[in-house]
Amino acid sequence: MAELRFPVDPVHVMLFARAVCDDNPAYRGEAGVAAPPTFTEALQQFIPGYPWRPRPGEPWPASAKAATVDRPGTVVLHAEQRFTYTRPVRVGEVLVARKRTGNSWQKPSRAGGVLSFREIVTDFHDGDDAVIVSSVAVEVEIGADR
Amino acid sequence: MTGTLAPGCSRTVLLHPEISRATIVQYAGASGDYNPLHHDEPYAVERAGYGSVIAHGMFTMGLSARLVTDLVGVESLREYTGRFHAPVVPGDALTGTVTLTGTTPSATGVLHSFEVQTLNQHGQLVFSGTAIAELPA
What we know:
The complex is a heterodimer.
Chain A: E1 4-7, H1 10-19, E2 75-85, E3 94-108, E4 114-125, E5 131-142
Chain B: E1 10-16, H1 21-31, H2 41-47, H3 57-72, E2 77-84, E3 94-105, E4 110-119, E5 125-135
Antiparallel strand pairs in B: 1-3, 2-5, 3-4, 4-5
């Protein structure tokens, strides 16, 4: 995947802290202050064509005027998450995110089917090209066997 | 806690008294993840097979991060990991416990290791994790 530019906006940090119910006044947007530890999840706002962001005129898999779902299907869930930090993300800096695919594996499900796991690794680089945060998301696809 | 408690000591905090659908939507807006599983009841029930919409796992992990950062701040954090055990649904009350499990000298300070557990109002584990913070010696 191409590099993704991720500007760390003070209002975005404030809204994210509010969304994880962290009322620490340190997150209220002063330049240079640290963002909450999971703030890099908001990279999704900057991914072109991110599939879980609705766009006018493009198909959306869920209900619109009325329930438009058809039948049970597969669902991808976030099973695990790992962050490693050399320092926190700071308000005002512009990060560059580089994504890559990590390991993938399968294991039997309780329903007798197969659960498929995959890792998505994202490294967040600062202005000196140093990796300050590494994120590993483990996703699992369920429902293919039900 | 780190200055006054030895490894093994813990602290329990009510993280959220009642998760609402608005709470979940607020996280969707801030994170940018509008997966309908988290806000669209027909999709969550009829397609995904859940009893209702469910909160983002990363909402719960973000909420639980306070257990550690309220003690040691964000600057010192070196690692934060977690596993999602059960869905968080509207109406849930979440309580978290952080435990200092050990300390280890590092080249520039002391590594403090923590365990984090977040339970719903039924006592069911919804999130468990670990964190490492590096503090001055």
